[in-house]
């Protein structure tokens, strides 16, 4: 094993362990913090794979935006300090089964689909900004455009859901 | 040799030296800025500022640095202890990364070793700086939450919402620069400003960046998260002793990082300013001179921060968010589109021109649709803002200013100075 | 330090330097400071008056919507960066331009919707 491989495996272990802690911890805000750790470790994995743009995007979007969104969501309802007792329900075994099955499907698909695909790590230009840009805007235009529609739909949904509280009063509003 | 090759050749002692220099640069500049801020704000408010320790009070930051570790630390009983301790670490550690990718100067020779005055020149340097800033948000949110009291929590949430809102405007302003350089590496960005600086060539983007950088660092006039009159001291109300100092240092290092970033992106980085750059065959753009220009420009940007604080009153939160989302973000989007079209105009065929013209018309329609949003607030309506307590309307009508004669104006000016001097309450480390 | 891994090693090194600095400062602080807690001191400071009632505030749903806008526009900015590096390169041309304009158009519709629904004004 090379040094890069060892680091990669270690980071993977950190990501997995943090992910398990997310669902087992009894403190809501701590769960979000473990999620940050997990995402951070995944970003570092991308870095080790020389996909630097993707790695920093992971930090910017997932660590910097999505988890902050989650934190705001938690604080919107309730963010008690200390453990919460009602975080576990009796559905635990069912949840474990579903989680393991999902993971199994994903791993199988990935391994069967890309099990023998190799990327040459010696050539970092594939992971650079211009490399990714060239790929997206040459070959993956449709997913890119669909993404914008998805984002728009999500935004409209969030606004509609939150509107009862923040919109202008219902009389005079068209 | 190119920048990357020169950097790859660095021996280990040189790398450690550079790391040490960056670390010291960050800390020393932060200390000097604290001192300069207190002196300058004092001058702007007609009072002396710190003048007891050392000549001109120069040793004041050092005295504070010696004093603070000896202070008792009080962790409130309601706090979530682990997160409470973690928050300062998260606030300060990532700030230095921003300085690692900044180019401080061109090729020089240190003890016979040719190198570039920069620690690393990452091909995605710009993103690294933005990502480091977005990690810093956690320090603030967690500090506010873990204190277990309402004011810090509100301060932390405000601060996070503020930083992320203005990070968008900042990112879009940076995209305008990338459109010209086609590279995310800060070294390349400086190299492509040999002629005209982007601050002039892309003035709207520069302006947006300036506003966004003040909003992003939670500084006056956008220092809402620590608005003393509303939130005591914001997210660090419950912090004392060294942990408070760490938040304080983190704020100043963040200021230095965004200043350095603005300098690199828009003010030509380490390039000599215009009349000087003409002297003697680029003499002032080689060797160690550029470092002087770079640090000088950072100093100017920091002075700008202090000047703003001494001049402008604090924004209201609704005004602040309105400025961010209704002005800065749309303007920067429009600017990016316009800049792109200008960039590729000569390559465009008739179809291309038609498509962009159509897009512009759509954009205009969109802008027109936004105009009638301004509606008169219904008279007598008391808006409810959480909790169910009636509060004074947030869009309070300010009576229009009466016309003043010259004499009355000078009198009023004098009164304001006195008021400003008396009001000052948060001067430096207490 | 050489190449790609060396460069990121240095970034990690600087992160470690920052963390070590904080740790050393806090440890020194722990050794130097006095610790004489009394029940009165350990009350939350808040604004100087003894706190009354439970110590937590609920945040407003507005914050959530603004964060959502941030996520949407962060994704937008993240695609703009690689696009800005390639859009003028030979072989991309008008199509790439139009693709990005369509993308921006959808997002503009989003911010327009938020604007018209009064989400962007705080009051």
TrEMBL record, chain A:
UniProt xrefs under Pfam families: Oxidored_q3
Protein name, entry field: NADH-quinone oxidoreductase subunit J
Gene3D superfamilies: NADH-ubiquinone/plastoquinone oxidoreductase chain 6, subunit NuoJ
InterPro entries for the chain: NADH_UbQ/plastoQ_OxRdtase_su6 (IPR001457), Nuo/plastoQ_OxRdtase_6_NuoJ (IPR042106)
Reaction catalyzed: a quinone + NADH + 5 H(+)(in) = a quinol + NAD(+) + 4 H(+)(out)
Enzyme Commission identifier(s): 7.1.1.-
Regions crossing the membrane: 6-24, 31-49, 55-76, 96-119, 139-161
Keywords from the UniProt entry: Cell membrane, Membrane, NAD, Quinone, Transmembrane, Transmembrane helix
Membrane topology according to the record: Multi-pass membrane protein
Free-text function comment from the UniProt entry: NDH-1 shuttles electrons from NADH, via FMN and iron-sulfur (Fe-S) centers, to quinones in the respiratory chain. Couples the redox reaction to proton translocation (for every two electrons transferred, four hydrogen ions are translocated across the cytoplasmic membrane), and thus conserves the redox energy in a proton gradient.
Similarity comment text for this entry: Belongs to the complex I subunit 6 family.
EC class of the enzyme, as a word: translocase
Major localisation: membrane
TrEMBL record, chain B:
Substrates-to-products reaction catalysed: a quinone + NADH + 5 H(+)(in) = a quinol + NAD(+) + 4 H(+)(out)
Family matches, as InterPro entries: NADH_UbQ_OxRdtase_su1/FPO (IPR001694), NADH_UbQ_OxRdtase_su1_CS (IPR018086)
Positions of the UniProt region annotated as Disordered: 392-430
Name of the featured protein: NADH-quinone oxidoreductase subunit H
UniProt cross-references to Pfam families, sorted A to Z: NADHdh
Role according to the record: NDH-1 shuttles electrons from NADH, via FMN and iron-sulfur (Fe-S) centers, to quinones in the respiratory chain. The immediate electron acceptor for the enzyme in this species is believed to be ubiquinone. Couples the redox reaction to proton translocation (for every two electrons transferred, four hydrogen ions are translocated across the cytoplasmic membrane), and thus conserves the redox energy in a proton gradient. This subunit may bind ubiquinone.
Membrane topology: Multi-pass membrane protein
Highest taxon of source: Bacteria
UniProt key word Cell division: no
EC supergroup of this enzyme: translocase
Complexes and interactors: NDH-1 is composed of 14 different subunits. Subunits NuoA, H, J, K, L, M, N constitute the membrane sector of the complex.
Ranges that cross the membrane: 12-36, 86-104, 124-145, 166-184, 196-215, 245-267, 287-307, 327-345, 351-371
Family that this chain belongs to: Belongs to the complex I subunit 1 family.
EC number: 7.1.1.-
Compartments it resides in: Cell membrane; Membrane
Regions of compositional bias (Basic residues) in chain numbering: 401-414
Keyword list, A-Z: Cell membrane, Membrane, NAD, Quinone, Translocase, Transmembrane, Transmembrane helix, Ubiquinone
Species annotation: Kibdelosporangium persicum
PANTHER family hit by this protein: NADH DEHYDROGENASE SUBUNIT 1 (PTHR11432), NADH-UBIQUINONE OXIDOREDUCTASE CHAIN 1 (PTHR11432:SF3)
Automatic annotation (TrEMBL), chain C:
Top-level division of the source organism's lineage: Bacteria
Catalytic activity of the protein: a quinone + NADH + 5 H(+)(in) = a quinol + NAD(+) + 4 H(+)(out)
Annotated TM spans: 6-28, 63-86, 92-115
Membrane disposition: Multi-pass membrane protein
Main location as per UniProt: membrane
Cellular location(s): Cell membrane; Membrane
Main function: NDH-1 shuttles electrons from NADH, via FMN and iron-sulfur (Fe-S) centers, to quinones in the respiratory chain.
Protein name: NADH-quinone oxidoreductase subunit
Origin species: Kibdelosporangium persicum
């Amino acid at each position: 094993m090379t040094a890069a491989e060892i680091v990669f495996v270690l980071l993977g272990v950190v990501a997995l362990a943090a992910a398990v802690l997310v669902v087992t911890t009894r403190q809501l805000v701590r769960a979000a913090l473990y999620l940050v750790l997990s995402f951070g470790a995944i970003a570092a994995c991308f870095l080790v794979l020389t996909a630097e743009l993707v790695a920093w995007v992971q930090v910017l979007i997932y660590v910097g935006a999505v988890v902050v969104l989650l934190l705001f969501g938690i604080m919107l309802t309730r963010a008690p300090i200390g453990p919460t007792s009602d975080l576990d329900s009796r559905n635990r075994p069912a949840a474990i089964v579903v989680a393991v099955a999902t993971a199994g499907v994903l791993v199988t698909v990935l391994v069967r689909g890309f099990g023998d695909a190799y990327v040459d790590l010696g050539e970092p230009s594939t992971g650079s900004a211009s490399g990714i840009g060239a790929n997206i805007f040459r070959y993956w235009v449709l997913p890119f455009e669909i993404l914008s529609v998805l984002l728009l739909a999500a935004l409209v949904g969030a606004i509609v859901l939150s509107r009862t509280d923040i919109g202008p009063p219902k009389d005079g509003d068209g | 040799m190119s920048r990357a090759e020169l950097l790859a050749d660095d021996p280990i002692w040189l790398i450690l030296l550079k790391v040490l220099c960056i670390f010291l640069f960050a800390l020393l500049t932060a200390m000097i800025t604290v001192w300069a801020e207190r002196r300058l704000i004092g001058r702007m408010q007609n009072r002396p500022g710190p003048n007891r320790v050392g000549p001109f009070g120069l040793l004041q930051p050092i005295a504070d640095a010696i004093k603070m570790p000896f202070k008792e630390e009080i962790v409130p009983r309601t706090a979530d202890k682990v997160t409470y301790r973690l928050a300062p670490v998260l606030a300060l550690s990532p700030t230095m990364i921003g300085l690692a990718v900044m180019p401080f100067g061109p090729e020089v020779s240190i003890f016979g070793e040719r190198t570039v005055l920069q620690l690393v020149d990452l091909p995605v340097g710009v993103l690294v700086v933005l990502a480091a800033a977005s990690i810093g948000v956690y320090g603030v949110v967690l500090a506010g939450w873990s204190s277990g009291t309402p004011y810090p929590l509100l301060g932390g949430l405000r601060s996070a919402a503020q930083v992320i809102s203005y990070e968008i405007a900042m990112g879009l302003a940076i995209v305008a620069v990338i459109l010209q350089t086609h590279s995310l590496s800060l070294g390349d960005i400086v190299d492509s400003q040999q002629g005209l600086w982007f601050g002039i060539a892309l003035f709207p983007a520069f302006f947006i960046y300036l506003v966004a950088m003040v909003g992003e660092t939670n500084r006056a006039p956008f220092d809402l998260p620590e608005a003393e009159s509303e939130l005591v001291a914001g997210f660090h109300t419950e912090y004392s002793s060294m942990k408070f100092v760490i938040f304080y240092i983190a704020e100043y290092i963040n200021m230095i990082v965004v200043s350095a970033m603005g300098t690199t992106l828009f003010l030509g980085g380490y390039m000599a300013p215009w009349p000087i750059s003409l002297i003697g065959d680029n003499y002032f753009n080689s060797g160690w001179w550029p470092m002087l220009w770079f640090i000088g420009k950072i100093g100017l940007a920091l002075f700008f921060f202090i000047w703003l604080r001494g001049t402008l009153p604090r924004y209201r939160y609704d005004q602040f968010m309105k400025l961010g989302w209704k002005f800065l973000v749309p303007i920067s989007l429009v600017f990016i589109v316009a800049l792109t079209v200008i960039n590729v105009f000569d390559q465009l065929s008739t179809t291309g021109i038609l498509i962009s013209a159509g897009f512009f018309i759509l954009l205009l329609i969109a802008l027109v649709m936004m105009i009638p949003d301004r509606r008169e607030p219904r008279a007598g309506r008391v808006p409810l803002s959480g909790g169910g307590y009636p509060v004074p309307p947030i869009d309070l009508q300010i009576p229009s200013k009466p016309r003043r004669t010259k004499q009355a104006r000078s009198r009023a000016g004098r009164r304001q100075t006195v008021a400003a001097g008396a009001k000052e309450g948060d001067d430096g480390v207490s | 330090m050489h190449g790609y891994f060396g460069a990121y090693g240095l970034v990690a090194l600087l992160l470690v330097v920052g963390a070590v600095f904080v740790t050393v400062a806090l440890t020194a602080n722990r050794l130097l400071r006095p610790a004489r807690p009394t029940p009165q001191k350990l009350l939350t400071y808040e604004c100087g008056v003894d706190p009354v009632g439970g110590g937590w505030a609920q945040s407003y749903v507005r914050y959530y919507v603004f964060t959502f806008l941030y996520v949407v526009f962060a994704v937008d900015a993240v695609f703009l960066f690689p696009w800005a590096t390639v859009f003028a390169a030979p072989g991309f041309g008008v199509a790439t331009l139009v693709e990005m304009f369509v993308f921006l158009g959808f997002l503009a519709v989003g911010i327009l919707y938020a604007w018209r629904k009064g989400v962007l004004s705080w009051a």
